[in-house]
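re: that chain from earlier
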Amino acid sequence: MPAGLGADLGVAAAAFVGTNVDNCVVAMAMVAGAPLQRAHRIAAGQVVGFVVVVAVSAAGAAVLYEFSPAAVGLLGLVPLAIGVSGLLGLARRRGEAATAPGVAPTGRSRRWRRRPEDRAVGQSLTAAALVTIAAGGDNLAVYIPLLRVGGATNLAAIAAVFVVGEVLVTWLVLAGGRHPKARQMMLRMGHVAVPALLCCVGVLVMVQAGTFSWL
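^ sequence. v structure.
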């Protein structure tokens, strides 16, 4: 393998891993907290979101355009909104269960019972794609200069690494999210953990991008 090609592959691999660990963890948590029949939709949404981020990065590199990190950080409002919506829905359902006729607000035998569809938020392909795009918005700062380094060999190496990496991420998301222990944990706490995690992702995206400096 030529030294230049090896360096291109190494840089592309480092960029992919460094920018996709958080996406993988979030998607895995969403799969673990959702009904099994929705696992592939969430995994597909993660793939779509990543493709969109790479496509926007390629477009930015093609026109030599730098995105304002603070502006890109506004994408963090997407997972934040989904997470807050999930937490508010959870509080509303608990309130309805506590005030339902003939149901005591406390007591182990009468405690609120969650339906499968209530255990997680953001269970669709669209939601997973939007969360991935938002969480990967700050990746533009890495991908744009990476894709600017010209040459067909360089771009082919980046494309190959990204394709292989995304296949591995998808496998990890499905394998980890559908693992019995992961699903058992999410059965107990996923209805709170997933929206809380999405809120954290949204805030972290904006903090890292410096969006709050506008306030």
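Residues 105-120 have pLDDT under 50 and may be disordered.
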